[in-house]
Structures are given as C-alpha cells and as structure tokens.
Structures
1.
Amino acid sequence: MLILSRRMALAGLGALVACGPAAAADWPQKPVTVIVPQAAGNSPDVLCRIITDKLSRALGQQFVVDNRPGAANVVGMQSAARAANDGYTFVFATSAALVTNPYTIKNLSYDPLKDFVPVAMVAKSHHLLLVNPNVKANSLAELIALEKEKPGSLSVAVDGPRNISGLIAQAINKQAGTKMVLVPYNTISNAVQDSISGRTPVTIQSASVVEPFIKDGSLRAIAVAGNERISTHPDVPAIAEMLKSVELQGWFMVMAPVGTPADILDRMSKAIAAAIAEPDVKERAPGLGFELAKGEPISPSGAKAFLDAQYAYTGTVIKSLGIEPN
Amino acid sequence: MREHDTQPGGAAPDSPVRVSQNLAGGLILVALAAIALWLLSDLNAGTLGAMGSALMPRVLAVGLGLLGALVAASSFFHQGPVLEHLPLRGPSLVILAIVIFAATIRPLSLGSVSLPGFGLIVAAPLSIIICGFATREARLRELVVLALALTPTCMVLFGDLLNLTIPMLPDALMDLFPEGWSQKAMLRVSAATMLAVAALLFFSGARSATDDAKAKD
Amino acid sequence: MDTLISNLSLGFSVALGLQNLGLAFVGCMVGTLIGVLPGVGPVATIAMLLPVTFSLDPVGALIMLAGIYYGAQYGGSTTAILVNIPGEATSVVTALDGHAMARRGRAGAALGIAAIGSFFAGTVATMLIAALGAPLTKAALLFGPTEYFSLMVMGLIFAVVLAGGSILKALAMIMLGLLLSTVGTDLETGDQRMTFGQPFLWDGIDFAVLAMGVFGIAEILRNLGQPEDRDLVRGTIGRLLPSQAEMRQSLAPILRGTLLGSAFGILPGNGAVLAPFASYAVEKKLAADPSRFGKGAIEAVAGPESANNAGAQTSFIPLLTLGIPANAVMALMVGAMTIQGIIPGPQVMTGNPSLFWGMIASMWIGNLMLLVINLPLVGVWVKLLQVPYRLLFPVILLFCCIGIYSINGQVTDVLFIGLFGLAGFILIRCGFEPAPMLLGFVLGKLMEENLRRALILSRGSLTTFVTEPISAGLLAVSSILLVAAIVPNIRRGREEAFAE
C-alpha cells in the first residue's frame, strides 16, 4: 500500500510537470480508465493489471482498472460502449463478450463491431482436453472410440453449455458423433476436483489451471483445443488435427468506444505492444495460462481483422450446434 | 429483531385495525410466492436428469406459498402478537437518503432526466443530513459538522488509502483546479478544506453553546 | 515428530524475518480495516493489492495476503457485533448473539471472547495444518456433488435450529432465502429467472447486499422506532473483557467450535461456510437453557467465532496440498502464487519448503498479531457505541452505501440495500427472523448447482443420495437433527395449549 501511494504521488508529480494544451500528441493528460468486465482477481483482471501497471509507468499517467463484472460481461461492455470516446476510457474485452455473447444473448445491449474499435489484441488462452488417468484413452481418437462403445457413459466437466469449454465439448460431440454428457460447473476448482476423483472422467480446462495436475499425474492431457499445438505441451496434439474446425479459443483484446481519435488508438496499441514485450510480463504470462499476442494483431487494423474472422467463425459454430440466443 | 420477546403481545392501543403479525406476515409470503410463480411461468422445468431452469425455483415458490398460508392460518387458532402500525418518518427518510446517495454518486440517466455525477463530496453530506432527520432528536448544525468531517475522512480512507474506484469530485469542481493537478492532489486539497470548515463550525458552535450557557446563568 | 519440529523451525525462521514480520503486520492491519468497514471485502482488496506484491518475494507476498484474509475475518466480526452488519456469510451467526450482547452493554465481552476464541482456534488449526495437512487432503476428494448436496441439506437443518422463535416461521424464512438464491441466469440453460429483464439481476442477488439490507439497514430502522432499546447500550458498559465466569462458560464451546471449524474448512466446496452455523446449533442443543440463545449468550459467540476462524485457517489445506482453492480469496491466492511463478499443488511442500512452512508459521504469527491488535481496540470500539445514536446511524448508513458501491461500482446495489432493508424491517415487524433466510440464501446456490450435477452424473436417479455411503450418512444425521429440533417444539406447543 505504501508503495502504491508513493507511486501515485510520483505520477501526480509527473503530471504537474507535463502541462500543456490538450491534443492527441499530449495524450494522456489525466488518468485513463480501463474497464474490465470481469470481477477483480479473475485471470483477465490479473493480466490487465499487469499491463496497466506498465502503461502507467510508460505514459506517465495513472491507468485505473475499473472492474464492472456481471451478466456474462454485459454490464462492463455496456458501460464501456456508453463512455466518452475521448481516449480516456478503454475496455479489456474477452472473446466471450465480443464473439460469443452476440449469438447466445437475445437483445444484447451493445454491438461488439459497431460500438467499439479494436486497439490491440493482447493474449490468447489455451484450453486442454484432459482425462482422469484411469480412463483407458491416450488420444482423442481412443476417447471417441471408448465413448462410442457405450454412448452417453462419459461425463465431461465444463463451464456451462454456452461458455467456451462447453461449446468445445458440444462441437466435439457433434463432429465425432459422440454423446458425452456435459456437467456444468461455475467454479473451476470444483470441476477439477471432480475430474481428479474420477466423477467426471473428462474435462476441458484452461491450460494454466490444470498445469500442476498434469505434472503430478492426477490428470492426463490428450488434446489442445484449437488448430495448433502449444509450446508448453509440444507432444499433445491439437483437436483440429483429428476433427477439423474445432478451433474455439479464449482471447483478450483492448477496445475503445467507437469514434476515439485514431492517433490515440495508435499510441495506445504501441504502448501495449511495448508493455507485453517487457521481459517480466513475458515471463509471467505462461504461468497465468496466456500466450501473449505477437506482430500484426497488436495493431488496430490487425486486431480488427482477427476480430472479424473470429466473429464470423464463432457464429457458424454456435448456430451449427443449434444454440439459440436467450 | 425479536419483537415478540421484547414486547409480549404488545398491542398498540391506538391502531385502528388489529391484525396479527402472523396473518400479515403469512399473506406477504403468499404474495411473494405468487409473484415468483408468475415470473417463472414461461420457463421450462425439465426432467430430473436434465433439470430445467424453472424446476428448483418453482418447487421453492410453492413451498414458500404453503408455509406462508400455514403461518397466516395459525393466526386464527391462537391470537399472536398484534402488528403495530409502521412508523413513517424513520424508514422514509433513511430510504430517501440511500436513493439520494445512489442518484448523485455517479452520472445518472433515467429516460429524459439526466444528472451529472457529483461524486462522494456531494453524495455523502446529502445522505448524512437527510438520513439524520430520520430521528426527532436531529439537530441541523450537528449534522452539518458531522457531514463536513466524515466526508473528507471517507474520501481519504476509500479513495486515497484503499484506492477504491469511487467517484470523488464532480467534473465542475475538478475544472476549477489549475491544469495538470493529479486527482489525488485535488482530492486531498478538497478534503483538507472541508475538514477546516468543519473544525471552524465545531469550535464556533462550541463557543456559542457556552455563550448560551453563560447567558442563561 | 522430529521432522515436524524441524519443518516448523524452518517455517518460523522464515516468518520471523524482519521484512516478513512487517508484511504480516501490514496485512493484518489492512485486513482489520477492510473487515470493519461494511461491504469492503477481502476479495476486492486483495485484487487491488496484487500488483503491489509483484515487487515482493513470494513468501512475503503470500504472508501479506494471508494476513489481509484473516484480518478481514476478525474485523468482520467486530462490525457484526457492534452494528449488526455481517459482512460475510460466516459472521451472520456472530451478529445474532454478539449484537444482542452489545445491546445489553456487554459489547466488550463479546469482542473479547471473539478475539480470544479466534486466536485459540487459529493456533489449533495451524498445528493441524502442519501435522495433518497432507493426509487430510484425501478426505476432501471423497466429497462430490452428491455429498455436497446432502451436506447442504444438513445445513438447512442447522438453520431451523438457529431460529429463536417459531419453527414454522423459520422454515418459511429458509424457503424465502432459497427462493431468492435462484434469481439470476441459469448456468445450464442460460435462462434468466425472475430478473425482470434487468442485467444487474442476471448474476443474482449479491450476498453482501442482502445481508447489509436485512441486517444493517433493517437494524437502523428498528432502532429508530424504539428509542428506549438503543439507549440501553449507552446505559451500562460493564467491564471491558470477559469475566472469569464467562471465560469458563466459553471454554468448551471454543474447543467444540475449533473442532467443527477445522473439519468443515477442509472441504474444498466452501464447506467452511457451514462451520459457524453448525457450532451455534451444537451449542444451543447442549445448553442447559437454550432460551438464552438469541438474547446474548456468550457461548453463541465463542463457539461460532472459533469455528469461523478455524475454518478460515484450514481452508488453506486444499489449496496448499491439492492446489484447489476453497473460496474466492483462496482463488486469488492461487493468482498471486502463479504470478510469482509458483504453481500451487502438492509439489509446493517438497519443492519449496521454506515457502510452505514459512506460510504456515506466519499463520500463527498473524493470529497472535491480530490478538495484540484487537484486544486494545476493544476499548475503542466500545467507546464508539457511546456516541449518541442520532449521530451514529448516519455514519453507519454512509459506510454501508460507500462499501456496497465499492464492490461492483453499481448504483443498483446501493438502492437494493434500501429495498432489502425495508423488506427486512417489515418481516421483522411481522415476527420473522432474517438469519435463517440468509443461511437459506447462501446454501441455495450451492444446493441447486450440486443437485443438478449429482442428477446429471446419476443420469436422473434420485436414489444416488441414499446409495452413496457418505451422502446417506449425512442425510441420516440430518433427519435425526430435524426430529431432535422439532419434537421438543411440538411438546412445548402442546404444554402451552394445555396451560391455556
């Protein structure tokens, strides 16, 4: 706390020195708010705080994290959509808020493509398909074969049928013709516990959460959700190697209210690129389960291209699963 | 909390209608259950293997309704404590203070009405003074001093020390400060000013009170 | 035994370092402060402080965060006793008799016994973690959805016992609490239930909002209507700390509470919530004169407070040994650990012993510090009660508004404490008690989730609750408890009828 207030005093001092007329070149002139549509302490929040900490130092103004959790990101996204587009409000948006909600929530109160402009892609998070070690399957193919012997016998622990790991499970069921039963958990720890004890022999979890359980052998990773293998588990094949187009992923993108001056977006995206290139951020991200963005997607135009592609792709997957917005 | 313990059978002699607590309470619960059932009417209960969203709440609402009916019915078998008439002044001013706090702390737009956010520096004194009048013993001067002393304390405690993101100052006030001041500095200066005014009021008040006392002697 | 001693001495050598002692102290102070402020909770504060911990070494960071956690537990009891506002589910029970004691002028004794009981429980729980942490972990894995559902059923029975007045009314309040817990988006279907289409209700009602309304605000409204009652507090203060007789009375409840709390705390599914309720129910059953409960019985503060703190402590066991966080604060600790490059789980104990044992030793040091911080504060808090009520209640109200706003930054939360306050006031006027409703509310969410999962896993068969041995055992105990709770009540009712 002492450290915190000292830093603030320094930031204040810096601001006193740097006065001048308000123009995009002088941005930021006052503290910048970054809305996180998730509760304080969730993994997107932690990542956001690591990055805003760097931004505060680099740009000489306090970047304040404003947690607006609730209603599957809707509360935070809605308040960000209504915020002034003067370059002093940004939102740390999740893939759920940007590309899943439009297809699962009726009368969504914000439009991800029209109310916001992308600033920078920040990170992806990876999901793994894991089994309890007693399950006699060492690969996705063997798991599917096992399930087909007795359809409906395997239970899979997920975060809910309309959330990312639930969607992945349903996509596998649909493409492989299996009938795994989805068991919804809203706390990750309970899901992991039930998979370790074998009640739900299969689970789909964010890679960071299950890392220790893979290490001590209480869970076995058999596939990576997405179309490519990941650096931390190079020998675990991607689902897409067997089932085409199960490429659902979680990711995070900084967005601004539409109409925010382009040069501010540019400066912000460059600052974010610099922040995520710092060695201690790079070092911490894998532990939190994030793969930091590289290259083109960190720019506003690259982020836009990525968002548009994901928006369309997720839509086709969700519609093909027969999920209706409600 | 336990009305019937502190006031055994405490019938208010001046209340026009004598309704027992159980009858009123039971009927309230039945009404709540009915509202819940109505709100749940278009949801699906599903099956045991795949519980629908309405299964659990519907069972609970029916249970609540039955229990409420039993409580209400019990009032016919033995006359329990009688419901006293509700005081109006206290509850209405306390609720008003809460509403005022909610309406002024941050920008508000309700249909055609929209208010700028005033921040804690306005919301806190308003709600202290309004809510203070919920009791008949309220004294305006005392409440003003309390408001002027407590508000800056809260501003520093929550905004500066705990670093919580609560709006503190209205934009209009922040514009009065010279260019380039940090928010924390503005907060501290405003807080110090308020405290000074509070101290001034308090001591002048104390002196005038002693003056009054002397005058009486 | 030898290894235990050498491990503990390693731990103390780490925890007694100057920097770590300082961090533990800062953590305990900040924790006490946020615990005392209604609404502001440890989850939000720890999240805010996470970036600060980047610059610390891992042991120091965790020691400070843990200090905040149990500091907040201590502080929360203070608010529950003084102004009847339970900040968390676990201090609801403390509010019952603790605040009743305060109204009788025994606030000092209530605060004192809470601090002493918590310290004792903390000491025992720390030793338990050190000695039995690893083997106890296996027990946690025995609990799945079926077992948790039955455990929650048992919790509901505690709620019946909790009630001071009519059992029928208590049942009605539990039902209302359960019903309120189902408000919000359904996890499985995505349907919005009883939300009136309002996004702020999609996630359901927040516990802090409900508790602050039906306890804190309703208490203010009640006091405003009864001037004679609240002046009682100012009339007699009595001695500050518990008397010898009171200490003797509290001894057995503290022991039993510690035991119950330690057992419930080990369960990773937030089982610690039940510990204070269980302790209250046990003490009331064992008491020579159960009618004192609810009117300021010191056992009803000593037992549940010890249970609460023991549970808070042992809930570190699943985190440290399995890597499974038991509640939201523990989940944040996982975040803090991973940021520091430590992956929580069984390997921490072997791979990083100075961290593991340093943390355990600091738990005990933290508890000692809290006792040292809190006992002198008792005098200050009691003095606070002497402030005229006409000045005190606007302060309480303001802190409630700011505290609740600070959690989610939602204006609707502020409005809802008013709404629930009014509703609670009316229910109290009709002779209902809010405590069983709050317990029903807390258990409701866990109950529905686990019922649904248990039924999916059993593919729709209800018999799973009696064929699984642990679940069957829990249900059997519940039915015995229920009979034990209802029979005397019926008998009493009959006697009253005869007397008339």
Note: Chain A has two domains: 30-125+250-320, 127-241.
2.
Amino acid sequence: MSWQRQVLRVNLTKGTSKVEPLNMEWANAYIGERGLGTKYLSENMDPKADPLGPDNVLIFATGPLTGTMASTSGRYAVLCKGPLTNAIACSNSGGKFGAEMKFAGYDLIILEGKSPKPVYLHIVDDEVQILPADELWGKGVWFTEDWIKSHHSNPNLKVASIGEAGENMVRYACVVNDLHRAAGRSGVGAVMGSKNLKAIACHGTKGVKVDDPKRFMKVVKETHKKLAESGGRKELTKVGTNAMIDVMQEWGGLPTRNFKEVQFEGTSKINPEAVVTPNEHGHVNLITNKACFGCTIACGRIAHIDKEHFTVVNRKEYWHASGGLEYETAYALGPVVGVDDVDALTFANFMMNEHGMDPISFGVTLAAAMEMYEMGVLTKEHTDGMELKFGNAEALAVMAEKTGKGEGFGKELGMGSKRLTEKYGHPELFMGVKGQEFAGYDSRALQGMGLGYATSNRGACHLKHDVFGEDMEDISGNNKAKPVKDSQDRVAMIDSTGLCLFTTAGWGVEDFVAQLDAACEGSWTEERCLESGERTWTLERMFNMRAGLTGADDNLPKRLLEDPAPSGNAKGKVAELGKMLPEYYSVRGWTKEGMPTNETLNRLVL
Amino acid sequence: MQKSLLIDPDKCTSCLQCEMACSFEHEGVFNPARSRIKIFEFEHGKRAVPYTCTQCAEAWCLHACPVEALVRNPATGAVEVKDEICVGCKVCTIACPFGTVNYNPDTGKVIKCDLCGGDPQCAEACPTDAITYVDSAWTGYERMQAWAVKTDSKAASA
C-alpha cells in the first residue's frame, strides 16, 4: 500500500491511454517520485533522443508518501530529458496537483509521442480523456486553470499546465500547478509544449491507504511535533526562504550582476523586512504565508504589487494577490540583475508564474545579456530599444513579459544563457553548469555548493545536495567531497518519498525512514533508503553518460575558477573544483574520468 | 459543557491536514474528496476558509429526513447520520442551507460532520489553530477580547 500500484500511460501521437500495474520490483528499489521516475524514464526512452522531439518521454511521478498525512505530502516530480542541458531533467513541485493525481489512482503518468494538435488531459479517477486545447493554446497558466475548472464545472480539479513559454519551447519553461507552484527547472515545460500537451487536469476520489495505519498515525504525530518545534521550521513559516538573502549578503555569497560580485548593495529593499514595511504609498508587499498540500511549514508567500507602481499602474488585471518572492526568485530577479525594486521583482515573478518560466534561468540569462549590453556586444538594436543595463527595473519587467510571450528580444532570452552567450561570442559569460544557470549561491564562497553544482545531474542546482553546515564551518575546499556525495544520496532518497526537502529543517533521515516504514509494506531501514538514494543518483549519472555527457561536463565557469571573490568572507578565493572533483569521483567509486565502475554498478544492482 | 468547532480563517494556510484527518477518521484512508470539512481558497490563496457543519440547534437536515436517519447525539450536540437507516434519498442535502451535508456515491449514504464523537480530528490535526474545539457558549471569546483590548485606552497609549 501507499503506492496506488497503477501507472497511466498516454500515447499522444495516437491519442490513446492505458493503465498498467506499477512495477513493484522497481518501486522497492527506487521508492517513488524522483527515483522511480528516473528508473521508468531510463527504461522507456533512448537518452540520445532529441529533448524537444517526439521520442522524449515526459513522466509525472508521485511518491509513496504523496497524499498522506505526513507533513509536506503534496509533492510530485516531472522527469524527461532536458532541453537546456541534454541531460536528465527532474523538477519537483508542491501545491495540490501531486496529491490529487495520486487520489485519482496513479503513481505515475507517462506521456509518450507528440499530439498532432494541442490537447489537454482530463482525468477523474478511471475516466481519462484527451481533449482539444484550441481555446487554451496561446494563453497563460492562470487563464488555463480557470477555463478548465469552469468548462468541466468542477472546481475540485487540480491543474498542471504550461504557459506560452512552454508552447514556444523557451528552454527553461516550467510546468506550473495551482497557479504559482512549479516544477520549475530544466525546461520540463518546454518538453510538455513540444508534445502539444497544454495541461493535465485531475480529480481523484480514491484516497491513499497506508500499510500500518495505526503506527503511521503515531509516527506522523511525532514527526509533526518535531518539525513544529524546530527553529528552522519556525523561520521558514515566519519569514520564508528569503531569510537566506540577508545570510548570503553578510557571508558574501550572493551572486550579483552576473557573478561579477558576491554582495549586493540593495538587499535591504528586497529582503524579508522590506516586504512587510509600508512603502511611500502605504502599500505593503506581503499579504500572508501559504502551505502546499499537507504541509505544516507553509513557507510560501502571497504578495501583491502597489497599484501605483509603473509595472501595473494601467493594468488592473495584475492588482490581485499571487505568489510572492522566495529566496531564489528574489536573487534571480534582484541581485544577479542588479535590481532592487521590490514591486518590479514581484511583477516579474507574476510573469514567471503566469507564462510558465523558471525565474532562476530567466534572471541569470538576463544578467548575461545585461553584461553583454554594458560591454557593447548588444545594443538597443538587439534589445527592442531597451537600455539593458544592470539595475534597470523597467528592463527586468518588460523582458520578463516579452520572454513569457515570445516577443522581440524575449525570444533570444528564451534560449537560456549558454546559447545566448555563445550566439554573441561570449560563452565565458554563461553562469551555470551543463547549460543550466546557477541558483543564488556563489561557488567561491561556498565550496561544497560549487562541487554540488558541478556534479549535479540536471545541471547547476542548489537542491540536489545539502552542505551548508560544512561550507560555513570551513570556507576552503577541504573535506567537501564526502559530505557532498552523502548529501546527494540523502536528498535523492528524500525526493523519492514524495515529501519536501525543507522538512530537513526539523527532520533527520530516521524520520523519513520511520514514515516510509509505517506506510509501505516490507522493512525500510536507513541503510536501505540511503542505498536507494545512491542508486537513483548513479542511474541519473548513467542516463547522462548514455546521452553523451562526460566528466568534462562536471565543470564551473572560468569566472568562478579564476576571478577571486571581490569581497566578503571568501575575498580573494576562487572555487577549488580542481581539488575537490577527483576526491569526489573517488568516494563515489567512479573512474578518474567520472564513469561509475562496474564494481559500483554491481554493488547498486544497476 | 457542549463544545463547538471554532474556525479562524485568518490562521488557515490551506494545508488540508484537516481534510486528511477527517477522511482518515471516517473512512480509514486519506481522501479529501470524502472529508466532512473543506477548505476554500480565494484570490490565488490570499485567503483560505475552512467550512463545515455548525450543528444547527434547529437542524434543517434532521427535520427533512423522511426515515429519521439523522439523529442528535445528546453528548456532543452533533447531528449524526445513522448509516443503517439512511436510504440515500439526499433530501437532507437539499434542506441544508449551508451545503455541509453531502452524498457519498461510494456508499449510497450521506456524510456530514459528527464532531468525531467529541474529539474532532480536524482540530487535532490543524497545525495553526485555525480550527479549535471550544465551549459552545463562548466561541466569540477571543474576538471579544481582541476588540476589548482595542478599546482599552491605557493599552492603546502604552
């Protein structure tokens, strides 16, 4: 139990769907969500396939704890080969869609082929329809959700959809569910768009059962309490993830103006205090916090834009509340582009959600464009007459909307930073790994983070490892390989349960294991769970090797390897990847070239 | 002392722990579609409002039932559905002005809040105290107190 033991397979080319039993051997080896999704993806497609072609496979995957009373049980992942990286893409999201998909009876939905015309999936329990999306194509996420619920007269439907960015195959388009939660990174929305699939709408009435209900409820009561009492949880509830902006500013790890600097002079205008302080019109940005399904943290922020702000002064349609700034959005729409106008950041964030784009990749791409503009490589002729200088809030707002809608210079920004900087002859200005842009942490000031970025299977990502403690304790690259490897495996396990990584604010491995063991049949130990995480990590790696990536792709930009951090705790330091990477390959049981050895593969039964 | 559910929408984060606790208590499975309490969200989540049966003293549902399947529990004050009597005619779902009695197609019976026999699991599960179980005669106590503080001139000037 806990798994629904059913997979929905949809062939979009033929317009058919069928239900098949979940492979329980794989579920036992990979748990669910990220791990199980990776196994299904590996077995269902050729990693050499064109990511935007019909042979790519798109998988929506829940975990065994998705839809249960375990805290943060709303999560699901979207997997495919990524169009930004040509590597495996796995983005997870909260909100309420994932649990609803499970309640309808499916652990996974596998989408194959390409529909000849725009369609959306309408699922109510066993009833699965592939319906024309003509009235939705060309529309944003917010319109799409409203239209589908009202068209089916069913407000209980939960919707995961793409905006215009996904339709236009912006390389970092995301899948958005419940208006402002997103499977945000690696361009999974572009793959959905390439398949002519606009949305999946779902309602389920089957519920989720667990193996040992009595023990599960006892464990859940304890884990709820433990999470409630943790200081980290309290901070996330009260302030949200943007608490990090002050921490990184003080530390000197806040990437600013395309990573030329590591501290930003304008943080006090976009930090947690700024969003609760009235502006000159008496407007307060933040309204309240909000939870995803099952979540007892509620780190999400709901905000609104000052009606007198230039972005919305004549646009009443953006006067309502919606998803507010979290750390990564604040960083990528703020310091990295040099903007400190909190309403402009909030407007750009609304654009990301409505049109379906990853704010991290958008912001870092815009930052590279701004640097090229200031160098004179780009001029107003390229940028639709816009002064694309660092710090220009109008440029941020206008380009966010243009990129979302695929207009003018926005089409170029939609390529992502790697392709944009290559096109204009400055590949060294791309700030990312394997084609995916960096999150808001500088590798020179957080060495383990740098190693994590370089080795992350989906390209630069801050959520695939967890070594903040080690990085802040020792600013050098010493002894980082093992903690990075161990935390990568641990996070892969947590991502596979169907719960949210932020619960680690209060929980250790034992808490995830106790909940899994009560919910799922069989015996789940820490050893088994962590080995499953390592298996998932290694299988992701093997997918990438089969796709044609090599150890040479585990790299960082020259700027971080050669230009010392100009200020902060890491002043004078560069990223010590050359030292850390060989150690990392060694603790992973990989060759010097970064290939898992046969011995390692056999040990993990791969 | 009779107790009632006290709902404070300002505290609700829309996590749906209450809906899961409710369905687990009554159906043995986590299934918000069969929850007796429901959260409504407005304006992209700006506001979330838990809503369930208020256990009317003169209960429309109870009066409307042609087979007397709806019965008042004297200990809790809740109107409960007797499954063995209910014929699934749904007249009570029409009679209830608040919509809090609903039909369950899986069982052919109606479902409504029964206060879990005096230990409401929604209140137990709510992480923010948006749902509490308090003295029926004093559900307004905290709001009165909050307004009283505002009219206290000493507190206001302090």
Note: DSSP finds 23 helices and 17 strands in chain A.
